[in-house]
Amino acid sequence: MATEPIDSNDSTAPTESTLQNVSFPSAGTTAYGYLAVPPAGHGPGVIVIQEWWGLTAHIKDIADRFARAGFVALAPDLYGGRVAHDSGEALRMMGELPTERGVELLSGAVDYLLARPETDGDTIGTVGFCMGGGFVLSLAAKDQRISAAVPFYGVNRDGVPDFSNLKAEILGHYGEDDDTVPPSSLKELRTAIESQSGIVPVLHLYSGAGHAFFNDGRPEAYHAASAALAWERTIAFLRDRLGASG
């Protein structure tokens, strides 16, 4: 994965040490995360999976946005309270979390979210960004309780997963100008999903958008028009698959 330069002293850099309000057992340990509940007090569940920076204010804000849209949103803290302050640290921390271990931790988060009294239904959706977008696909490929999967410019560090057991519908968002996840790489992903699962993914390309175009905390990467359209499509997709009031 290409590094993304960021000044650790810049005001846009993530500086939180932790943003957690729940804990739960997962993969033989105690995991933590941020839970946001909709105004109605209940709704379909959505797992929000962090970028390589960690559980930042940006990810917490996305969970809050999902809650306002009618979903019970859980953002698991895959780094156990640590947040990267520059791209080098983020790369190192991501490398310390093998894909298989991340999927184990996320499966525990699925257990927890489905067991919450606020969560409606017996399946959930997943949405993730960059590293988290890759985890969206890896988790959906293994856990049939995921019925809707939304990767934003997902990085598949170990190559394309085995989708033989996939049950989730997939909606993907990618930037046409993304050097980290180039549009040319999507052909392999689409072919693997269709040939192995029979599911036809919807993979959108956004003109003028690069990597991390949804992250409004990074003005050098944020592409407002693409982010707004991707959000609109994501909410409609999740409501259709999971059911949620506006």
UniProtKB/TrEMBL annotation:
<dbReference type="InterPro" id="IPR002925">
    <property type="entry name" value="Dienelactn_hydro"/>
</dbReference>
<dbReference type="Pfam" id="PF01738">
    <property type="entry name" value="DLH"/>
</dbReference>
<protein>
    <submittedName>
        <fullName>Carboxymethylenebutenolidase</fullName>
    </submittedName>
</protein>
<dbReference type="GO" id="GO:0016787">
    <property type="term" value="F:hydrolase activity"/>
</dbReference>
<dbReference type="InterPro" id="IPR051049">
    <property type="entry name" value="Dienelactone_hydrolase-like"/>
</dbReference>
<feature type="domain" description="Dienelactone hydrolase">
    <location>
        <begin position="33"/>
        <end position="240"/>
    </location>
</feature>
<dbReference type="InterPro" id="IPR029058">
    <property type="entry name" value="AB_hydrolase_fold"/>
</dbReference>
<feature type="region of interest" description="Disordered">
    <location>
        <begin position="1"/>
        <end position="22"/>
    </location>
</feature>
